[in-house]
Amino acid sequence: MTTSIIPAAGKGTRLGSNLPKALVPIAGKPMITWTIAAFEQTPVVNAIVLVAPDDSLEEFERLRTENKWQKVFKIIPGGTDRQQSVWKGLQAMPSETEWVIVHDAARPLVKPSLIVSVWEAAQEIGTAAIAALPCSDTVKRTLDGVLIAETLDREQIWLAQTPQVFAADLLKEAHEQAIKDGCSATDDAALVERLGVPIRLVMGDPTNIKITHSVDLILVEALISGKF
Ligand code: CTP
Ligand code: MG
């Protein structure tokens, strides 16, 4: 059985909206409805655990009914950071879960075909796979945000996206170890990397944008309306 955990409990501070980010409208519908629709349409996904802001649980339940989400197994309150929200999601999964797909609510344009490709790569390697894009910019490292310390070899740099797919036991172990070690990370692959197991890179999709700043909303709406 494959379960998706969708962390959607963030505030969207960088977006500067009054609404929690997952409820911000995109082409007239809350962001989370686009993201969930992609998973509802993906055949390999059996169940969804949706991690929502504490004070929006009722609104998420209302959206579940209104949009007739079939696969949403539980809607649970999130934690103080993304890692805690995913950790809570792991506790709420159906016990038969063998594979976990973690995907940020903030990437509403994810395609079912990408979800399936990453899932298949994870099955093949037996451990984990993530969507990522080769970096097209030249990358500078800085220690103080003022002066360049060095230029990194762009050929070696890939930018991580979600979906990220993991064997369920492996992801649980990675989170437990991170808690023990007081380690925090902004994606789940970073926690699994610490266990030293192989993780496959799968070519991501440049339209699978993470909505972070207000310009990202404009880009996503333009993509939806077919403007580019
Ligand atoms: N997230 C979460 N729980 C948190 C923080 C973040 O579930 N306590 C989720 C967000 O809802 C989002 C994903 O993790 O889908 C990626 O986080 P990010 O893009 O940083 O979203 P926010 O934390 O909402 O934005 P900001 O950092 O600007 O406040
Ligand atoms: Mg954040």
Question: Would you mind describing this structure in some detail?
Answer:
- With 228 residues, the chain is an alpha/beta fold.
- The chain has a single domain, classed as Spore Coat Polysaccharide Biosynthesis Protein SpsA, Chain A.
- It is 33% helix and 24% strand.
- The chain is built from 7 helices and 11 strands.
- Strand 8 and strand 9 form a beta hairpin.
- The longest helix is centred in the middle third of the chain and has 14 residues.
- The protein binds cytidine-5'-triphosphate (CTP) and magnesium ion.
- The site of cytidine-5'-triphosphate has 22 residues, from helix 3.
Unreliable sequence segments: none
Strand content: 15-25%
Distance between the termini: 37 Å
CATH homologous superfamily heading: Spore Coat Polysaccharide Biosynthesis Protein SpsA, Chain A
Q: Helix coverage percent of residues?
A: 25-40%
CATH topology: Spore Coat Polysaccharide Biosynthesis Protein SpsA, Chain A
Helix-strand category:
alpha/beta
Q: What is the CATH architecture assignment?
A: Alpha-Beta Complex
> What are the distinct ligands in this entry?
cytidine-5'-triphosphate, magnesium ion
Q: Regarding CATH, which class?
A: Alpha Beta
Q: State mean pLDDT (0 to 100 scale).
A: 97
Strand order of the largest sheet: 5-4-1-6-10-7-11
Number of helices: 7
Number of domains: 1
**Annotation, overall tally of beta strands:** 11
Shape descriptor reads globular
Rg is 17 Å
Could you describe the largest sheet, including whether it forms a barrel?
A: 7 strands, mixed
Order of helices and strands: EEEHEHEHEHEEEEHHEH
